[in-house]
Amino acid sequence: QLTKTGYTxxxxxxxxxxxxxxxxxxxxVVMDAFGKYTxxxxxxxxxxxxxxxxxxxxxxxxxxxxxxKDQQRSQxxxxxxxD
Length: 83
What we know:
Its EC number is 3.4.16.4, 3.4.21.-, 3.4.99.-. The chain has about 80 residues and is α+β, with helices and mostly antiparallel strands. The protein has one domain (about 1-75). It is built from 3 helices and 3 strands; from the N terminus they run βββααα. The protein has helices at about 40-50, 60-75, 80; strands spanning about 1-10, 10-20, 25-35. A 3-stranded antiparallel sheet has the order 1-2-3, covered by helices on one side. The longest helix has 15 residues, at about 40-50. The model has no long low-confidence stretch (mean pLDDT about 85).
C-alpha cells in the first residue's frame, strides 16, 4: 500500500511500510538494515512470521553485521571521549 525507504548515519538503511496482513492493516518499520535492499528481505521475513507464526532463518551476513554494530556501539564515541 505504502512504502518509504531512507538512510541516516545514525539509523542506517530503513524502511517504513504500510500493508495488509491476514486482512488487517499493519505498519512495519525496519531500521539499520545491512544494505540498501536488505530491509525489504527483513520485511518479508516479518510478514512470513506474522502470517504463519514460523520464523525464517536470518542470513549469516546479517548476524555478522549485527555483531559488528553491537561492538561498535559499545565503544565510546569521540564526543564521549572528549568529555
